[in-house]
Specification:
It is a single chain. The chain is α+β, with helices and mostly antiparallel strands. The protein folds into two domains: 11-108, no CATH class; 117-322, no CATH class. It is built from six helices and twelve strands. It has helices spanning 11-19, 27-31, 57-74, 93-108, 147-155, 176-188; strands at residues 117-119, 124-127, 135-143, 159-166, 191-193, 198-200, 206-210, 224-230, 240-247, 256-264, 291-300, 314-322. A hairpin with an 8-residue loop joins strand 9 and strand 10. Helix 3 packs parallel to helix 4. The longest helix is centred in the N-terminal third of the chain and has 18 residues, at 57-74. The chain starts with 10 loop residues before the first helix and ends with a strand.
């Protein structure tokens, strides 16, 4: 319903603000356990029961404080207001519904403007077994204790991040293929998997497949390609870098996210020079040096209002293949 300044709030109206599970969503739905794209795992505000028709100052203030806490984390601007005391007329109800709708939308969007995030330590690092002239393919998994905690993590702005580095040369010095790999590393940059979308911080090379609209909420039990980069500027324009994700269950039941990364050198002219034909050329001149795929998390923190925050329960290297 619409409110005018000076109106009194009734118990059933307060309960809508607190507990509505349909649009307009109540505080507990987007900040508490929630469902689908909502929920941050915060403590629920009790509803008023038993025929109560008077909302106490403490009850109203608990809602105002909760709104401010979530807004601090999502970096949304709320209506300026102060706590009420016993005897005050509640004259700010008209703005509460709008503020709740703003916060619900931010949570459903994965708290895209949240800054209370911290890069965690490296969880998994998978290096190629040797210098190679084919492919390096890695799978890493991230496991959450339950589907709710996975949703809380992503809704609060948490992300899974993958980086690629080259830690050794193919030959005695960096080969042309090493240079091409370096260009692909720059093109990907940080590969981040968020709630509704994924991103790369790089911008170069050809984005052959653009699936960056895929995020945690879009997972299926089969791999989906988030991106396929094809080299456009280097010597080896057949080189590709691909990122894929899948889950152990569809959105709503997901507890395990698996990321598959593939760096592929499709050039067919690779040879290993031998003693009889080196002619002062390094025998690994056509090879890629050691590459390393690493996974970490961007973790929501309690620095701006959330308490508790949620994170993974385990991580694993599922596979690491060099061909």
């Amino acid at each position: 319903m619409a409110y005018a300044a000076g109106d009194k709030i009734l118990d059933d109206e307060f309960n809508v603000f607190v507990a509505s599970t349909s649009d307009p969503f109540g505080f507990n739905h987007f900040a508490g356990t929630g469902a689908t794209v909502y929920g941050l795992g915060q403590a629920a505000i009790p509803i008023v029961a038993g025929g109560t028709t008077t909302i106490t100052a403490a009850q109203w203030n608990s809602l105002l404080a909760g709104i401010d806490n979530i807004a601090n984390h999502t970096n949304d601007t709320m209506t300026a207001r102060t706590a009420v005391t016993t005897g005050d007329t509640i004259a700010i109800k008209s703005a509460v519904a709008a503020d709740l709708a703003t916060l619900a939308a931010s949570v459903a969007g994965g708290s895209a403007n949240a800054t209370a995030l911290s890069a965690g330590s490296e969880l998994r690092s998978s290096r190629s077994g040797t210098r190679y002239a084919g492919s390096h393919i890695v799978e890493h998994s991230i496991t959450f204790s339950n589907a709710n905690e996975a949703r809380f993590f992503f809704n609060a702005g948490g992300k899974i991040r993958v980086n690629l580095t080259r830690v050794a040369n193919g030959g005695g010095a960096a080969t042309d293929k090493d240079d091409s790999v370096d260009e692909m590393i720059t093109a990907m940059g940080n590969f981040d998997i968020g709630s509704l979308v994924s991103t790369r911080s790089g911008t170069t090379e050809t984005l052959t497949t653009d699936g960056f609209a895929i995020g945690f909420q879009d997972v299926t039990t089969s791999y989906q390609t988030v991106f396929l980069l094809t080299q456009a500027n280097g010597t080896y324009t057949s080189m590709t870098l691909k990122g894929e994700i899948k889950a152990n269950a569809t959105a709503g039941s997901t507890t395990v996210i698996t990321i598959k990364m593939s760096l592929t050198d499709a050039d067919g002219g690779d040879i290993l020079y031998t003693d009889g034909n080196t002619s002062s050329i390094d025998e690994f001149e056509n090879f890629i040096g050691t590459t390393d795929f690493a996974t970490l998390l961007l973790l929501p923190t309690d620095a701006q209002g959330l308490d508790p925050v949620y994170t993974l329960s385990a991580s694993a290297e599922v596979s690491n293949t060099t061909a």
